[in-house]
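Justification of computing resources. Each target in the renewal requires a structure prediction run like the one illustrated here; the chain below, 88 residues long, is used simply to show the kind of job we budget for.
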Amino acid sequence: MARTDSPVTCAVVRAMNSHDAVILSDLEGSRTFQVVEYATDECHQELADIDEGTTLSVSLKPIHSRADIWRVEIVDTRSQEQVATGAA
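Resulting structure tokens:
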């Protein structure tokens, strides 16, 4: 498993549960990411506050274990249009 070097635009498939896990899927539906760890409290809180179906951009790092689980390094909840225009 390699780190996603550039941000991945994903949809929230399952919002954060009581175990702090979130399931994301890239917009093409070809990859699913089970996120169970967060680089910062801010990353954790941003993902805790979003609903299923929300689109966001994340940078991810694999957690080396027996499962295919991921750590969020960066969260950007701006729309693709906002990112393209540099809007806050």
